[in-house]
Amino acid sequence: MTAVGVMSGPITDRRAVVPLLRRLRSDAGRADPLPVWAELRELGDVVPAPWGGYFVTGFEACSQVLRGRNWLVPDFGWQERQGDTARWREPATREMTRTLSRLNPPEHTFQRRALGNLFDRDTLETLRPRIAAHVTRLLDRLRSHLRADGTADFVPLVGDQLPIHTVGRWLGVPAEHYPRILDFTHRQVHAQELLPTKSELAISARATVEMRDFFTRLVAHRRAHPGNDVLSGWIRHWDAQYPDDRAAADQTLYDLTMFITIASLETTATLLTNAVWFLTRDPDRADWLRRHPEHTDDAIDEVLRYDPPIHLNSRYAAEDTVLAGVPMAKDTTVHVLYGAANHDPRRNENPHVFDIRRKGGHLTFGGGAHYCLGSALARLEARLLLTQLLERFPTLRPIAAPTYAPRMVFRRVTSLKVTT
Ligand code: HEM
Question: Which residues of the chain have pLDDT under 70?
């Protein structure tokens, strides 16, 4: 680890970031955000945002925000105090604001304690053979496509499929529903973008209705046919917490199943596709990892550091505070830029170099009270996929750079064409 240097001071011009944000939203910026992150960092560890609040670019400052008790997630209370209340009252936005990631203590602590460590060692060991078998099936399919056509798209065939099959089976959702779940989650996520347009919010609102209908039915069906699965366990727990209020129990159960599904799909799919892209675009790199499988976990962490599936997350100041030397009043919003932080040269030397043996630091799974609950599962999926893929497809390589959905917050790779 390199020493974390002194944090740099602020600029005051709120328009300074506008051209950089524009570049981040462009095709070129999505394909390679690294130069823009570097320019943002050069503006300071905290950079004023045009609409008020700040972007946080430095590793140490981002880490302080994510871990600090004086930084809270923007919840309903914060939204009500904003000028633009219409924006926050959008149905798709409200739906997400009720979920774990937008709760603060004491509600957050209450729900998080009830969930416990979702993917402890025993659970992962139980899931491992199923996931490995599914990887085999997906790679069989990839092989058939490659044999038939010479090329194949990794994203729809494997990258998008493994996460939904993993989390779907874990929650006991029948496989026939997976295409529908993938479809509405891709559409719902617009509402979580930084500045969604009206039409994007309308798309999200429609997807939210479908999502609510699906997960409400799932909970009701499982309540009628309880088993020994994770969702049946949650139903027993929340029914006991709210013995006289079935509606409150059902609301919490819906929020949890919906959010955990949505949180696990695109994120893990992006990790899996990025891993294949970063490793196979350089045949020597893939070959080296095949000969050194003991470094698979290091490779996964370098992929996570290099191109985080979530690019931005927000917090607000619970009280007047100072961040990287900049005084911030209570309620000030800050946007943590995970990618800029992960590429901070004060934390990771030569950050633009993809180096499997780096053992660097990253904030890709967040930090503190909201640290990702699915990191161990995502890592397991990536490990099982890479282990089989590198063995079975030693000459796999991309034929073009990946394409990305037009988003800034939730990165989604829409296509990665490969051949052997
Ligand atoms: C590569 C894959 C993934 C990435 C990059 C990722 C990233 C993140 C990030 C950045 C956060 C917010 C942390 C913060 O606010 O400090 C988060 C929260 C969360 N993630 Fe993940 N995630 C991934 C996979 C998963 C999976 C597979 C699941 C579940 C099966 C999951 C469940 C959650 C949950 C429930 C939270 C909310 C935790 C809370 O607010 O207390 N994630 N994740």
Answer: 1-10
CA separation for the pair 385, 329 (Å, rounded): 46
**Is the residue at 8 inside a domain?**
no
Domains held by the chain: number: 1
Please check whether residue 195 lies inside any domain of the structure.
Answer: yes
C-alpha angle 62/94/234, rounded to 5°?
85
pLDDT at 14: 84
Residue 89 resides in a domain: yes
Protein residue closest via CA to atom 6 of ligand 1 = 365
Which DSSP letter does residue 177 get? Answer: G
Range(s) of the domain holding residue 316: 18-419
Q: DSSP labels for 291-316?
A: H-GGGHHHHHHHHHHHS-SB-EEEEE
Q: Taking CB atoms and a 6 Å cutoff, what residues make up the pocket around ligand 1? A: 66, 100-101, 112, 167, 260, 263-264, 267-268, 271, 309-310, 313, 364-367, 370-374, 377-378
Ligand 1 mutation pick, 104, 267, 315, 333, max ligand atoms within 8 A of CB? 267
| Predicted local confidence at residue 4, as pLDDT | 41
Please report the pLDDT score of residue 8 as a whole number: 52
Per-residue pLDDT at 1: 34
CATH number at residue 305: 1.10.630.10
- Considering the domain boundaries, does residue 117 fall inside one? yes
